User: What shape does this take?
Amino acid sequence: MAASQARPWTARQIGFFKPLLFIVCLYPVMRWLWLGFQGALTANPPEFLIRSSGIWALVALCLTLAVTPLRRCLGQPALLRCRRMLGLFTFFYSALHVLGWAYWERGLSLSAMWDDIVQRPFIAIGVLAMVPMLAQAVTSTRGWMSRLGARWHTLHRAIYPVAILSVWHFWLIRAGKNDFAEVYAYGAVLGLLLLARLVPLEGRRGNRP
Amino acid sequence: KLWKAARNPDFDLSDALTSERDVTTYNNYYEFGTGKADPARHGGELKTEPWTVSVEGEVARPGTFDLDDLRRLAPLEERVYRLRCVEAWSMVIPWLGYPLASLIRKVEPTGDAKFVEFTTVMQPEAMPGLRSRIIDWPYVEALRMDEAMHPLSLLVFGVYGKPLPSANGAPLRVAIPWKYGFKSGKSIVKIRFTREQPLTSWMKVAPQEYGFYANVNPDVPHPRWSQATERRIGAGVFAPREKTLPFNGYAEQVAALYQGMDLRRDF
Assistant: This one.
């Protein structure tokens, strides 16, 4: 394995690191609450919260997809123990993003939501990205893992198309203002993280597709 | 600096005013940047003294007007107007100004004048947004002659009893309350009267999204969002959206201007 010289982290060390990471992942929520109590959620709080949750969903997605390349680069296989939590945070911020749209944009009316989905490609693509994520969140438990067996991996590999759909969704929103700087930044990071999976592992070259 | 001008009771609303802070810090003014806070952040750099407005085209009395002379052309009055942004949010704003028609009559348009075009200032030192390629600068907006002459069309010099801040279009702008906000040109340096319909900035960017008329219309959705409802700025985090009214609630006054037109086609 690459960088196998590094001393692998023990379960205890990961057990210490994980709660810290959990608190770091809650930073956006704490910031929203703080800004909310300060009355500082801009003049248009719904718009701010919908956009902010969307951006943090992308950040969480980047972190989730960074686990595998990081494990290899750092030679720390135990990092895998953080991946489910990061994946669930990706789902959490994505779900808040969707709920924000449903509540503030569509007034929680199912027919209004449906109209938006069928009339507007960027909404449809966003919802499409949400479908596999929902299934992944539900099947993230050990029970579901063993029940689904090999199919679990297939289902959870759908995070790659989810990443592509998410950037596409983001691109379509920003297309109106021709303002793509952030879209390209997230697209580049996610693209690199996906490409990193294609790099064969040193010494195991023969085993990788 | 405060200006004393009585509120015109014919142009008042029962809606609560949007706070001065929101009115002056939540703006679309892409010359300063695409973020809503950018205009207030960079606006201080805008040089508004001296300021002249050139009046050109199909008029008997073209010329260059000094800002102070323009402001004294007619008595200032306060009018409370709804402002509906094409992005589906709205405000209620106490503008200070006088009818645009007062200026137009003064310069005597010829019989060939069918449209009025407003050009926004370009000050690269103050306006970092001019470096972006979103819009083919300068920003140009226009009205049909009868729209410009309508008593609701206001030439605006102030807001909330004070001279306009840069973010709101200092030192002078127009306010056309029955149209989406982007139709109301800011920081005007040129007013041109034309025979042909001018090609306005947002039509150049995306003609399928932004039409020439841009009348507020709940029945014509924007390709990326519905226009049926709007969010009133300052109403609170959990306030429900409000129904958008045809012509932004000014149908009684302006609907006649568009008789016989298909407003779904001429959106």
